[in-house]
Amino acid sequence: LNLNFWGGVLLMFLLLLELKDKLLIKDEILAARAIQNALIPESQPHIQGFDVFLYYQPMNEVGGDLVDHIRLDEQTHLLALADISGKGLSAALLMSKLQGLIHAFAHDTPFEGLMATINQKFFYSVPKQSFASMLLLQIRENASVVRTLNAGHLPPIFWRNGHFVTLGKGGLALGLTETQQYKITELELKPGDILLCYSDGLSEAFNLHGEQFGEQRIQAIIKAHAAQSAQEITEAILQQVEVFVEEQNLSDDLTLIVLKKDKN
Q1: Cβ of 74: how many Cβ atoms within 10 Å?
Q2: 192, 184, 257: which is closest to 227 by C-alpha?
């Protein structure tokens, strides 16, 4: 009887310790979530000549995607979208590191060398086997040309003058090599043209049958809603994803930048 009693006490003690650890972890995750929310732009970018909408939805309490807007000067803006390898708290920490590097070098580094500079710093400051894909967009107010740099990310979807233009792949993802050069791609946007940057949480969203949402569905939504605002296009995409996955949870973070050239 004594052995059974003390065995029960020991089991209860171990269960209480496990519960305490889980509560501590939950508190840490909630704190990380609050910090991550603070790093997301508080308001949508206002860039004269363009309609812009940013969207970020983590799969869990914290995520490894990044979306950001930096005003470099009165006329020039930088948009960033990135996807960190891995998931959860570790990916969120690396995302914060990458965002810090962007802000540290964006103002004083020429755009053509910005991605290479960030890559070098990221390579030396993250664990081995960690990497990130990233898109950078430099936009000048009331201009027609958007300059882009791509480090291993999915090419943006470009709707131009009533049809889709295929964009080439970029350089290696960040953190894979110490030195890597990245080539600028310049895109001319005419009134009504749309550029969609997105993380693979969109294209690789799964439904109950194991099918992926895919690029064709994304293109169909853009084509059907091309006359609408950037926010309305975003909402149409999210609504279609919700219908597609049904009761399934997202399998990854979902991040979007919708950029549309004003017709005015």
Answers
A1: 6
A2: 192
| Tokens 């310790």 belong to residue | 17
- With beta carbons less than 8 A apart as the criterion, state whether 263 and 49 touch: no
Angle between helices 230-245 and 214-224 (to 10 degrees): 140
For the chain, the first-to-last Cα distance in angstroms comes to 85
d(CA 231, CA 219): 16
The helix, strand and coil proportions of the chain, stated in percent and rounded to the nearest 5, come to 40, 25, 35
Q: Which two tokens stand for residue 237?
A: 């995409």
> Which residue carries 């009887």 as its tokens?
1
- Give this prediction's pTM: 0.85
Tell me the HSE value of 1 on the side-chain side, using a 13 A CA sphere.
Answer: 0
* C-alpha separations of 238 from 57, 97, 222 in Å: 10, 28, 12
Helix axes 88-105, 111-125, angle to 10 degrees: 140
Tens of pLDDT along 172-190?
999 999 999 999 999 999 9
- Identify the three-state secondary structure at position 209: coil
CA dihedral 146, 257, 204, 187 (to 10 degrees): -10
Distance of alpha carbon 134 from alpha carbon 263, whole angstroms: 29
Chain segment 26-59, per-residue pLDDT in tens: 555 555 555 555 556 778 999 999 999 999 988 6
* CA–CA distance, 202 with 13 (Å, rounded to integer): 44
Domain boundaries, the chain: 1-39, 43-261
Question: What architecture is the 43-261 domain classified under in CATH?
Answer: 4-Layer Sandwich (3.60)
SS3 263: coil
| Residue 35: DSSP 8-state | H
